[in-house]
Structure formats: structure tokens, C-alpha cells
Amino acid sequence: MASEVQADNAIRFYESRSYNYDDTWHVDFTKRFISLITVEPGHNVLDLACGTGLLTFLESEAVGPTGHVIGVDVTPGMLNIAAHKKRQAGNKYENVSFLQGDISHLDRIQGLEGKTFDVITVASALVLFPDPKAVIEHWAQYLKPGGILALDSTHPRNLVSGMVLERTARRLNLAVPYNREWSQSESTLKNVVESAGLEVEKVVTCENQAGYGKRFHDVDTWDDHFVENVIMKDVTRTFATNEIRKQAQGIFKEEWERLSVDGKVEEVDAVFLAIARKSADGSRYISTSANKDIVFTGGCRCGSVQYKCTAQPSELTFCHCRTCQQVSGSAFLPFIEVPTESLEFTSTMTLKKLVLSSKSDRSFCTGCGAPISMIFRSNPEETSLTMSSVDQDSFKGTMPKVKKHIYLEEKAPWMVLPEDGASRSQRVELLNTSDT
Ligand SMILES: C[S@@+](CC[C@H](N)C(=O)[O-])C[C@H]1O[C@@H](n2cnc3c(N)ncnc32)[C@H](O)[C@@H]1O
Predict the structure, then answer these.
(1) Which among 154, 57, 58, 47 has a CA at the least distance from the CA of 103?
(2) 266-290 pLDDT, tens per residue?
(3) Is the CB of residue 365 less than 8 Å from the CB of residue 351?
(4) Residue identifier of the C-alpha nearest atom 27 of ligand 1
(5) Measured in angstroms, how far is the CA atom of residue 270 from the centroid of ligand 1?
(6) H or E element: which one contains 255?
(7) N or C terminus of the chain with fewer C-beta within 10 Å?
(8) In the predicted structure, residue 79 carries a pLDDT above the cut 90
């Protein structure tokens, strides 16, 4: 989605919401937001996607008469309300100015030329942008050396029907007015901010953002959620024709059901908030701590399951057992083994345990069906990861080589083993067990 399209979509979406925007949970959330950051008297602050100025005015009080706050937003209706509130307050907010423009292109906004700021805030807006890393890199140019950027992104189960809608649109190759699939955990927000060149000081999870905490929807209510999101709220006309809506309905149902456990779909009212700093000499931050020890990362096809691993894995074992054939839909499953303690799942929204024997526990993604891992109950200190789930480009060091073919007694008859020099066993010497 080009940034102009994003901005047009935002205007369409927020223009009609501007009149009652201040009746929503955003009022309380902006108070929590400012309580988590340091805005001091005399600071120059830039509040991006400022909306009706909820956070901007709080910042104005914090910086006092010697500081200044600029709020920028693209939606005229939101800015009209902000300007109205400023007028109503007499000279209380003299240190605030509002500018209209697309914050993906701050260089095109008159009034920002040559300016840098002590603090930049972006509340409840990052997930509206198709490329979070690119916009953060752009915003960071407007920070003073040592300046702070504070911004939040959604918990994957926040407004869960919106998430399902996003998946539905992606499967139909349609543009969606937001991009939240990447925002899976505190770590994924930290990673995206650090990849944009800023050092993250902390990330916190703000629970109970809109006041309902957690709730569970009956899986059968999918149609109500489809109607509410797709029919009622589709101001950007993503699902423009009846034909597309019909297709979207089937996919929405499928994606909604995939998220259900025991007939319920969980919704979590939470966001992740990151506070990051530009280095004192203005140079780009290169992560040395968080990612230093990561040897490889991985995940599933749809991205809802993600992990990182800090240990060099074993060489590859190709398991030809019948279960591996059936769960992979192939002739065998290639695995690498790692110490379980070296593995951290950073996103588990759709990770589901799969028990197909008394000896081992497998896991897979309910979103896309990808097999992820297997742990033998007799050896929980070791986890086997499917090689297909490993991000090949993330590998530091040498890529594992094929070392063993196991369970050849169950090998698919049509499979011809390659001359790869790997050891071959009928059952499973390595794992010392008789079924997987
Ligand atoms: C959920 S509101 C958040 C408003 C405010 N930050 C708050 O916390 O109350 C999202 C805001 O992002 C603005 N927005 C979306 N895309 C934008 C863009 N490309 N440039 C400027 N503002 C944008 C919308 O107009 C809307 O006011």
C-alpha cells in the first residue's frame, strides 16, 4: 500500500470518527501513555498522528511555558476538534501548534523544516502504516541526539476480528488499511524499533487498554463479527463487490475458527509500548545485546508463530516415519535439535500442541498448518525443530548438513534416497524409542 493510499484511507476512516473520538478509551490510554514517558519542562515535543490532541495537550502541560509541542495529523476532522479544544482553553495551550500532513513524509510538511525534537510520540497509530521500520527510520531523523521516541503496537489478540479481517484481505490479495500481523509480542516491537536504528530502553505491555481486559467470543458468532467489520466498517471499500464479500465471508469464517480453542475465540485488550532513544552522537543504533546471541530465528508460514534460538543446532535428521509423512504431507520431515532452554517462542498466538503418540509432543500452527517442533517425553531438555520453520537467512555460522535418515522401515515406497553420505537406520537409534 503506497503511503498516499494509506493517508487517504486514514482520512476516510477517521473523518467520521472525529466527532465522538473523545468519548472513547483513547482518553484514558493517552493518560497512561504519558505516565510511562519522561516529558520535561522546556522540552520540544512532536506528537505524530495526534488526532484530537488528547496526548498533545497532556504534553503541553508537561513541557510548560518554556517548551513547545507540535501535533501533526492528516485527518482534517480530527485536527478541527483539536483546534477547537485549544481555542476553548483560552491561552492555556499557547505552547501547542497543530499541522496537517502525512507523517510518512514529514519533509513535505511546512513548519517542520530544520526542526528536531527531544521527544516524539506516536500513540495508537503505528499499526496503520504498511512498513513500520521505514516510518520509524523516517521519524528518527527528527529526533535530537539522545532524544526519545515512544510508540505502541497492538497485542495480536487485540480487536481480534480486525486481525481476522486483515488475514482475510491478505488471502484475497487486497490492501488492508492497517498492518498488525508483525506485532506479536514485546520482542517483535523491540526488534522493529531496533532495526530502524534506535536503542530500545524498555517495552511494556499495557493491559486493559480499553477496559475489558480479556473476553471470549463463541466461535459461532463469526458472522456477527464479519458483518460488524466487513460490512459496517469497511469505509475503505476493501471488499468492494458482492463477489469479493462472498469470498471474504468464507475465508473470515475459516480464519476465525482457526483461532478458536474449545469453541471460544479469545480477545485480549492490550498493547505493547516501546520507549527508544537516539544515540548521543546521533549515529544509528546497531543492536549488540538482544540479537547478539541469537543463532537463528524461525516461525510458521503465516507468521503467527515465531521463535529465536541461541544455540548452534545439531546436524539434520530426516525422519521418514509415517506420522512425519502425514503431518508434513511429504516423504519425510527434516529436523534439527537444540537445547530446549536455548529456544524462546516470541509469538505463540496459534501454536498448538499435537499429541499423536505416547512418546512425543509435537506442535504446529493452527493458522497455516505448518509443523514446528517435537519433544520426546523421555528427553524434554532437547527440542527438535522442523527445518522448514527455520528462517534460512537468519543463520549465523554454518548451515546444518544432512546427517541421518531415520525410520526407514516406514519410508514412503516411492521415495528414492539420495546418495548424501548420511547414516541410515531402520528405526530410531538416536531417539531410542519405537514410535514418534
Ligand atoms: C487512533 S488515532 C490516534 C490519535 C491520537 N494519537 C490518540 O492517541 O488519541 C490514529 C490517528 O492517526 C492519524 N493518521 C493515520 N495515518 C496518518 C498519516 N499518514 N499521517 C498523519 N496522521 C495519520 C489518523 O488521522 C488518526 O487521527
Answers:
(1) 47
(2) 899 999 999 999 999 988 887 755 5
(3) yes
(4) 51
(5) 19
(6) helix 242-258
(7) N
(8) yes
Residue that the C-alpha cell 476516510 belongs to:
12
Instruction: Show the beta-strand stretches assigned E in 142-226.
Output: 143-154, 199-207, 214-218
Domains of the chain (ranges; CATH) run: 3-158+176-218+264-277 (3.40.50.150), 296-424 (2.170.150.70)
pLDDT digits (tens, 9 = 90+) for 188-197: 899 889 989 9
Helix-then-strand count for the chain, H and E: 10, 21
Kindly give the distance from the C-alpha atom of residue 76 to the centroid of ligand 1, in angstroms, as a whole number.
Answer: 11
What are residue 360's DSSP bridge partners? 376
Nearest CA to ligand 1 atom 26: 51
Cα–Cα distances in angstroms (integers) from residue 343 to residues 157, 290, 386, in the given order = 23, 14, 13
Read off the C-alpha cell for 21. 473520538
Contacts 24+ apart (CB under 8 A), 60-65: 60/92, 60/93, 60/95, 60/96, 62/34, 63/39, 63/95, 64/95, 65/94, 65/95
pLDDT at 134: 92
Its pTM stands at 0.74
Reported residue count of the chain is 436
Would the CB of 102 count as within 6 Å of ligand 1? yes
Separation CA 361–CA 357 (nearest Å):
8
d(CA 163, CA 69): 33
Cα(16)–Cα(385) distance, integer angstroms: 48
* Total Cβ atoms within 10 A of residue 165: 28
Strand, helix or coil at 404?
strand
Strand partners, 374: 362, 384
Read off the pLDDT of residues 334-378 as tens digits, 9 standing for 90 and up: 999 999 999 988 887 788 889 998 888 999 998 889 999 999 888
Residue 113 burial by Cβ neighbours in a 10 Å radius (0-12, 13-18, 19+): exposed
Q: Name the burial class of residue 393, with classes exposed (0-12), middle (13-18) and buried (19+) by CB atoms within 10 angstroms of its CB.
A: exposed
Of 1, 124, 127, the one to substitute when testing ligand 1's pocket (max ligand atoms within 8 A of C-beta) is: 124
Q: From the CB of 58, is ligand 1 less than 6 Å away?
A: no
DSSP codes joined into one string, 347-379? EETTEEEE--SSSEEEEEETTT--EEEEEETT-
Q: Is the pLDDT of residue 46 over 70?
A: yes
CA distance 116 to 219: 49
